[in-house]
Amino acid sequence: MKTPSSAVRQSQRGAVKSALGDWMRTDGLTLIYMLKVVLAALLALWIAMRLQLPQPRTAMTTIFVLMQPQSGMVLAKSFYRFCGTLVGLVVMIVFIGWFSQQPVLFLTATALWVGICTAGAARNRHFRSYSFVLAGYTAALVGIPAVQHPDGAFLSAITRAAEVSLGIVCSGTVSALVFPQHAGEAIKATMQRRFGAFVDYVSNALSGKMDRSQIESATSSFIADIVGFEAIRSVAVFEHPDTRMRSGRFARLNTEFMSASTRFHALHQLMNRLHEQNALATIHALQPYFYEVAPLLKKSGEPVLNARDATQAAAQLDNFKTALPKRIRATRAEFKAKSETSLLEFDTAAELLYRFVDDLHSYTQTYASLAVPSHERERWVAQYIPKTNLIAAAVAGLRAVAVILVLSDFWISTAWPSGGTLVLAAATVCGLASSSPRPTRMAFQMAGGTALASVAGLIVMFWLYPRIDGFPLLCATLTPFLLLGTYLTTRRSLVGYGLGYCIFFCFLAGPDNLIHYDPTALINDAIALVCSMLVVSIAFAVILPTDAPWLRRLLLGELRRQVVMACHGRLTRLAVRFESGARDMLSQIHALAGDQVNLKRDALRWLFVVLEVGHAVVDLRTELSQLAADPRYVACTAWRHSTATMLDVVGRLFDKPNYKRFDAALSATDHAIAGVQALLDAVRASREEHRRLRRVLSNLHFIRTALLDPQSPFESFVGARGAPEETHHAT
Predict the structure, then answer these.
(1) DSSP 669
(2) C-alpha angle with apex 134: 131 to 135, nearest 5 degrees?
């Protein structure tokens, strides 16, 4: 029997272990990451000095640009950095060969190249954007000093590549061997958490336990998960063969989750509209099926904890899906006999229910397939496709061109010895900040970090270096300063300060094999660096600023035009392009909106109607494309012409919404519904063709209800039309 004192001690030991475990999962991981960064930087510095490379500081700088908490991120970033560096070196050698005797032409060409690369960095996502940043930054870094000595340009390019390659190797080696953290583990955790959250969401929504604000919050969380999951997946393939073997299924899982979540949202919104219209007969006929869905997503009544547990849930969904059409037909017959209400609402809701169950079954099957190393579901080509507005990317490129041309003109006019550093730093910061949602703030923070690095550099260069001898003392001297910068990069609100400090501390005070003590040059370079970043920050704030309403309107228009793409785009993988593009645009709008809740809510309202209408349009066009080769279904028939007109008018409505186009879209949809209904009443088709035409009719009806939803952004147009027409149509 335990004494009270031993029980207290055991309780205290348990509390200490729990606290220690929490610390290791949070601050402990941060400390390990900081030590790994410093270790990799010092290792790269030592090897570069042993190899007598002209600028060991470049290898050390590469470490701070590359290092990430997870090994896959480091390897992916290293790959794209190496590609960007090679491209930048080749381009700059060409520029030097063409314009080495013409400084104005050379700097103009450099500005245009950096602008193109900055636009590419803004257009692309994740670490692919980094290759564009490096292609522009490397060209400036090699070319601006080399243009003054063109005879050494080729040697400078080769040594630059060697120093960068050394930094890449050291960062990848330390990240993979010293307390490695793998992106694959993050993928598994995300999959498990998201599956459980989606099951809870479906259960609560179908039981009526979620209000509008909770649905918006859950949708925002799912969108962040989808975008973040694709970012992790794109880097995890660099880590381990096992992750690469499952990469196709990871991509498929993300795509199928998008489809299932969109389908469920459409079904939930339709049921809400039926409640508002008091269509109780339809609700009561279908409600029992809704209550059966959520328990199917569990294993023996318990939540699914991993991919292996999902096998049983997939089997349960398969049985439910197989029996559902027959059960729905029986319910439809009873509904038709007992109710005088039109079957259109019932058919639309039943079709959405079946499609949701089908998408959910596919999603669960793919999740279950991850329990084995290889599976036939790995063969998957339709994956998440990020989308960025071309005009916004072009503006980022033009802004970079303007900044570099202005600073180049200042350099030529003043003949400032550090003018090259001024232009070089501007090229770097334009590229790095362009991919940030707050580029003005990022550039300003980098200026603050660089100012701090300048003070630290003066201390290290002129007070500490002369007092030490040997590499061990050099490591001891640099470690505190490097740890400070690395710590700043781990704080989300201070990451700009940390990035500026780490990169430009190495640039200003990174040791070379032969150190030149020139305080005038160091101070000049420090002033040039800080000034260049302040100029870039001002440029981002003044020249078409990214937080201005114009960019939000531009991105919102791009979000709406996803429906235009759904109406007129190629059907090949159209659903995936539509789904991923809409969510990607919303994630960008939310990043720009910051803490402005009203802007986020407005964007979410547009996302809901875009997803509902766009998904129904894709389904409609898919069904039309699969109709049999029959004279009654050819494009020149009246009903097909009215459907094509409806698609064109709906596309124009989402391109530029106004009341006239809204009224035309509703009229065209009514006309298309009447045409398909008349065809169904007049022709005797096979059972399969009859079902397909009913699915066409259901999609048309759902598009109409989505446009008339009082919670959609078209609510003012709905109010202008008045409610009687909607009531007449529903009854």
Answers:
(1) H
(2) 85
Q: Which residues in 262-328 belong to E strands, given as ranges?
A: none
CA distance 509 to 439: 26
Interval 255-266: pLDDT, tens: 888 888 888 888
Q: How far is CA 612 from CA 262, 566, 664, 707, in A?
A: 7, 11, 19, 9
- The DSSP bridge partners found for residue 205 are none
User: What stretches of 37-132 adopt beta strand conformation (E)?
Assistant: none
φ and ψ at 299, to 5 degrees? -105, 110
A 10 A CB-CB count for 373 gives: 10
Helix (H, G, I), strand (E, B) or coil at 302: strand
Rounded CA gap, 111 and 98, in Å? 15
pLDDT band at 731 (very low <50, low <70, confident <90, very high): very low
Residue 521 CA to residue 417 CA, distance in Å, equals 8
Average pLDDT of 384-413?
A: 82
**Alpha-carbon distance 620 to 669, whole Å?**
12
| Alpha helix positions (H), 547-630 | 549-568, 574-593, 597-625
Joined tokens for residue 715? 């609510």
Q: Which residue, chain included where needed, has tokens 């999959």?
A: 191
Average pLDDT, the chain: 81
The one-letter code for the residue type at 312 is Q
**Over 80: is that where the pLDDT of 230 sits?**
no
Please report, for residues 126, 268, 329, 331, 705, the alpha-carbon distance to residue 273 in angstroms, rounded to integers and kept in the order given.
39, 9, 23, 21, 8
Which of 99-108, 481-490, 527-536, 661-670 is the least confident region?
A: 99-108
**Cα–Cα distance for residue pair 510/241, rounded to 1 Å:** 37
Q: Check if the beta carbon of residue 456 is closer than 8 Å to that of residue 536.
A: no
Within 10 angstroms of residue 503's Cβ, the number of other Cβ atoms is 25
Residue 47 has pLDDT above 80, yes or no: yes
Residue 720 has which token pair?
């202008």
* Residue ranges in 415-518 assigned as alpha helix (H): 419-434, 439-459, 471-489, 495-509
User: Residue 182 corresponds to which tokens in the numbers above?
Assistant: 């793998």
- CA 44/CA 677 separation, integer angstroms: 73
pLDDT above 50 for 670: yes
Apex 537 CA angle, 536 and 540, nearest 5: 85
Return the C-alpha torsion angle 465, 467, 472, 474, nearest 10: -10
Task: Please choose, from the candidates 119, 117, 134, 148, the residue with its C-alpha nearest in 3D space to the C-alpha of residue 58.
Answer: 134
Helix axes of 183-206 and 212-236: crossing angle, nearest 10 degrees: 160
Give the three-state DSSP class for 403: helix
CA distance 121 to 687: 53
Residues 6+ apart with CB under 8 A from 22: none
pLDDT band at 205 (very low <50, low <70, confident <90, very high): confident
Task: Domain ranges for the chain, please list them.
Answer: 14-181+387-542, 183-238+247-372, 549-730
Say which residues have a Cβ less than 8 Å from residue 601's Cβ, sequence separation at least 6. 216
Query: Which tens digits make up the pLDDT trace of 408-455?
Result: 888 888 888 888 888 888 888 887 777 777 888 888 999 999 999 999
How far apart are the C-alpha atoms of 440 and 434, rounded to whole Å?
9
Which range among 106-115, 202-211, 366-375, 513-522 shows the weakest confidence by mean pLDDT?
Answer: 202-211
How many Cβ atoms are within 10 Å of 109's Cβ, its own excluded?
A: 20
Query: Is there a contact between 79 and 237 (Cβ–Cβ < 8 Å)?
Result: no
- As given in the structure block, the two tokens for residue 352 are 């959405």
User: In sequence order, what are the beta bridge partners of 302?
Assistant: 299
Cα 389 from chain centre: 13
Backbone phi, then psi, for 581, in 5-degree steps? Answer: -65, -45
Q: Average pLDDT in the 590-611 region? A: 82
- Give the pLDDT of residue 11: 64
Cβ neighbors of 118 (< 8 A, separation 6 or more) are: 132, 133, 136, 396, 397, 399, 400, 430, 431, 434
Residue labelled with tokens 């009246």:
638
